[in-house]
């Protein structure tokens, strides 16, 4: 139910695709989550709201949970700067109403722009960490050193259910990827590999291509075998493969409070670019 039914506010439907596509091209204020999906791919999921003005869509907002109980703000677009505050207030009120009574849900957003950060702070979101960007430009690296019984191989599509298990074990809920998200990620990957021991997957890395090189999009190791060089071996292998492809520039992002990850990347020659983006969260249903 939409509280007080603000004028023009309604759930998005599949038939809105073309209108929302136009909005994404022309919106004066646009937030898009860095995701394996485009905002339009979320049509048909909830909550996804639009605000109509005549025969056009003036604003759109989407934050469907994935995985369950974690709802990243995938999209907020507003065509009219003068209506930004009110349209945000309306879609956020509708979102709180949607999640009310559905159990505890964490709504999260990575702020890339000041205006969006202002909206989040004004709506009761808080932040305790940031995403920091790292890069590595030199070629060559020490070859991966593996413990006895550990091997690396290319990731295959049939590995993805096990990859999802490793992902869930290696990250807190806020940062986990669902199997569906990992399937989409794999389709976009340029390099992906897994680490195995005794026939069991214990870690993986998945990397994509960007205009400047290769981006290490995901690295996870099961907790019981962390600090045994598995993550280092996966990254060293990635560096070696990237070098063979003639694309030595690698980028990665991680949480500002993930000291183990930051230490690993520093030892492997990654440097902080100085870019940092705050992560905001708001818990509904507590």
Folded structure, characterized:
The chain is of the alpha+beta class. It has two domains: 9-124, 3-Layer(aba) Sandwich (Aminopeptidase), CATH 3.40.630; 133-276, Aminopeptidase (3-Layer(aba) Sandwich). Helix content is 28%, strand content 34%. It has a nine-stranded mixed β-sheet with strand order 5-7-14-8-13-12-11-10-9, with helices on both faces. The protein has a five-stranded antiparallel β-sheet with strand order 1-3-4-6-2. The longest helix is centred in the first third of the chain and has 16 residues, at 84-99. The mean pLDDT is 93.
Provide the gyration radius in Å: 21 Å
Order of helices and strands: EHEEEEEHEHEEHHEEEHEHE
Strand numbers in spatial order across the main sheet = 5-7-14-8-13-12-11-10-9
Q: Give the termini separation.
A: 19 Å
Set down the secondary structure blueprint.
Layout: E1 9-11, H1 17-26, E2 29-32, E3 48-53, E4 56-62, E5 70-72, E6 75-78, H2 84-99, E7 105-110, H3 114-122, E8 126-136, E9 150-154, H4 160-170, H5 179-188, E10 191-197, E11 200-210, E12 213-221, H6 230-244, E13 250-255, H7 259-267, E14 271-284
Parallel strand pairs: 5-7, 12-13
Antiparallel strand pairs: 1-3, 2-6, 3-4, 4-6, 7-14, 8-13, 8-14, 9-10, 10-11, 11-12
Helix pairs in contact: 4-5
In short:
The protein folds into 2 domains: 9-124, Gcn5-related N-acetyltransferase (GNAT) (Aminopeptidase, 3-Layer(aba) Sandwich), CATH 3.40.630; 133-276, Gcn5-related N-acetyltransferase (GNAT) (Aminopeptidase, 3-Layer(aba) Sandwich).
Features:
286 residues, alpha+beta, Aminopeptidase, 2 domains, nine-stranded mixed sheet, five-stranded antiparallel sheet, 7 helices, 14 strands, 28% helix, elongated
């Amino acid at each position: 139910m939409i509280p007080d039914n603000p004028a023009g506010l309604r759930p998005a439907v599949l038939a809105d695709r073309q209108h929302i596509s136009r909005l994404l091209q022309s919106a004066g204020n646009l937030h898009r989550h860095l995701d394996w999906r485009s905002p339009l791919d979320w049509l048909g999921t909830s909550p996804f709201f639009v605000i109509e003005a005549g025969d056009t869509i003036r604003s759109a907002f989407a934050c469907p949970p994935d995985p369950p109980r974690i709802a990243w703000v995938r999209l907020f677009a507003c065509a009219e700067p003068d209506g930004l505050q009110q349209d945000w207030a309306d879609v956020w009120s509708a979102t709180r109403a949607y999640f009310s009574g559905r159990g505890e849900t964490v709504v999260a957003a990575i702020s890339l722009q000041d205006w969006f950060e202002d909206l989040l702070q004004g709506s009761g979101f808080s932040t305790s960490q940031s995403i920091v960007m790292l890069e590595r430009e030199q070629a060559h690296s020490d070859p991966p050193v593996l413990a006895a019984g550990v091997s690396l191989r290319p990731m295959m599509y049939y590995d993805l259910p096990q990859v999802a298990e490793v992902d869930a074990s290696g990250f807190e809920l806020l940062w986990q990827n669902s199997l569906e998200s990992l399937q989409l990620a794999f389709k976009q990957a340029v390099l992906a590999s897994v680490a195995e021991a005794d026939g069991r997957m214990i870690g993986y890395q998945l990397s994509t291509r960007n205009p400047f090189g290769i981006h290490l999009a995901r690295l996870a190791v099961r907790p019981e075998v962390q600090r045994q060089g598995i993550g280092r071996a996966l990254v060293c292998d990635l560096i070696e493969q990237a070098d063979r492809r003639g694309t030595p520039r690698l980028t990665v992002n991680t949480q500002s409070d993930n000291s183990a990850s930051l230490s690993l990347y520093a030892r492997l020659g990654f440097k902080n670019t100085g870019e940092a983006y705050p992560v905001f969260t708001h818990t509904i249903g507590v």
